Request: fold
Amino acid sequence: MLCLKCHFHCPAGFSKQMVEILSKHEISFSSFDVFSDEEVRQGLKTFSKWPTYPQLYVAGELIGGLDIVKELEASGELDTICPKAQKLEDRLKALINKAPVMLFMKGNKQMAKCGFSKQIIEIMNNTGVDYETFDILEDEEVRQGLKTFSNWPTYPQLYVRGELVGGLDIVKELKESGELLPVLKGQN
Reply:
């Protein structure tokens, strides 16, 4: 967590510099604008015994301010202390392989949020095969990135053992031909 003054308005640009360093090193972080809550702004100074902002925390522990982060960057230690942001391609691969049968859709298996997703859920539920879902409406990066990664422009998208099977039309064709169950079980 990075607690900072709004990095666009910081007179000396310390918060902006901190964000730039973390971004340059592809470090995964979230931030809190201390100008948005005066109680937090003052309380955190007391809690951390650090009088200025920005303040960088990793796993709940104060690392320090901008000068400390610059020193860690110069020594090469910053990359070992801070968690890296997962690259989108690696994240997509991990999601695709989260379960043997993975369905990317609008909504989830309890509540589809579009007609196509509802239809594919009905088909999947009738197979008796266990599957997981990912709601693409909850994560725009995944929603857009998966279309490019899979070279499949629409949703839903069904994956079996990390391989794209296709969308609703393909699943319907497989069902009608009797091939869906073997495909879902990896017997193709």
Q: What stands out?
A: The mean pLDDT is 89.
